[in-house]
Design brief:
0% strand, 3 helices, mainly alpha, rod-shaped
Length: 90
């Protein structure tokens, strides 16, 4: 009989209840937004008209002469300006 009491006494003790781990809030890191794709524009090099080339040469010759103090020959300024314009619009 004593054996029965001891078993009851030990069995009457309840096993400790498992407690759930405290809930933690998970914060998501903000996702970096991708920059929108930039469209590449291509510039078509078209040859300007003869009149436009003449005007550009005229303006370039003026600025070359201005830089030189108008001390040289105007034909030399014109030839140098034509060479500059020609290298741009090959």
């Amino acid at each position: 009989m004593t054996d029965t009491k001891t078993t009851k006494a030990t069995s009457s003790k309840a096993a400790p209840k498992k407690t759930a781990a405290p809930k933690t809030t998970v914060t998501k890191k903000p996702v970096a937004k991708k920059a929108p794709a930039v469209k590449k524009t291509t510039i078509k090099k078209t040859k300007p008209s003869a009149e436009a080339i003449y005007k550009m040469t005229e303006v370039a010759a003026y600025y070359i002469a201005l830089k030189n103090g108008f001390a040289g020959n105007p034909s030399d300024y014109w030839i140098e300006a034509e060479a500059q314009i020609r290298t741009i619009y090959k």
